Amino acid sequence: MERLFLKMAVTRAMPVWIRYLAATLLVAGSLLLRLLLLGPGPEMPFLMFMPAIMASGIVFDRGAGIYASLLSTALGVWFFLPPSRSLVITEATVLLEVAVFLGIALFTAALLEAMHRALASLAAERAGLDQANDQLRETLAQSGTLLSEAVHRARNDLQRLAATLRLQAGASADVTAREALQVASDRIAALARINGRLDRHREEDGRAQVESRGFLEGLIADLDDLAVDMRPIVLTVRAESAMLPMAKAVAIGLIVNELVGNSLKYAFPEEMDGLVEVIFQREGETFLLAVQDNGIGLTAGAAPQGSGLGTRIGRALAGQLGGRLELEQVAPGTERPGLRGSIRFPAAR
């Protein structure tokens, strides 16, 4: 019905004389059909006129509908109501019948016109909405392009900075300074890798969101290539798919980089074989991020290995996510108790 009304825009724009002539022909056709089916008797005098009135209102406009209503009423009175061939009505019941029919016919014409206008207004609003959606999609595409360019530039800048620090570390005679520069270079290079993964696994609709599973799997693949090398250590990922804001994805990537790096450095001494697993899953209204290994673990009372900077960075980043980094043994009481670092943080922060 909606399509029918909208297609009538062409006929509604026709010249007035064509519309009224067509309405006249519709009413005349209804009159002939009434005479053929029921004859000239007074029974149901207006039965066949209503379709002509509705057709005039649908195909043309309110004016044609009102004209068809009035013409139908006049022809019904003239041909079928006593006294025959007269527009004079003497009986009250007949007058009431004519008034009811005319009222219904005029109301129908007005109702059809209101439907025409409402549907035309709805079509115009839809067209405007479609245009706005097209503009929004174009804007999102442009935003996605700009975002991708920004990520590329940031990654290139970070890579250049990391290379500069490595050169300075190689040229430094001070062992402490050289180690500090190398550590800084490694962390900046890690941030550059994370930025690269952000762009690869970002949504194509321009939103600054990243798909978690592909992002973490790609990040662990990078770490496997760079840090594991020929060591008998396996890195695995068990990650659910979720859309993460870029800022949250960066923090998650840095935490994974630090915790996996700590496992590779300290959990498997003397070429020990091992497994490091990264877990990311949703638990109700929170996300769980965990990195666990089956290495030598932490010995109670023993001096911490390394500077502890990686753990401090992990705790700080966990705080940014709204969670807290917890460290615990995976298999306490065994020869290889392992270590598990886990963070639970709100999913909708």
Automatic annotation (TrEMBL):
Organism per entry: Falsiroseomonas tokyonensis
UniProt keyword annotations, A-Z: ATP-binding, Kinase, Membrane, Nucleotide-binding, Phosphoprotein, Transferase, Transmembrane, Transmembrane helix
Keyword Membrane set for record: yes
Enzyme class (EC, first level): transferase
Known EC number: 2.7.13.3
Any single Pfam family the record assigns to this protein: HisKA_2
Name of the featured protein: histidine kinase
Molecular function in Gene Ontology: protein histidine kinase activity
Domain of life: Bacteria
Catalyses which reaction(s): ATP + protein L-histidine = ADP + protein N-phospho-L-histidine
Segments forming domain Histidine kinase: 149-349
Keyword Cytoplasm applies: no
Chain segments annotated as transmembrane: 62-81, 93-112
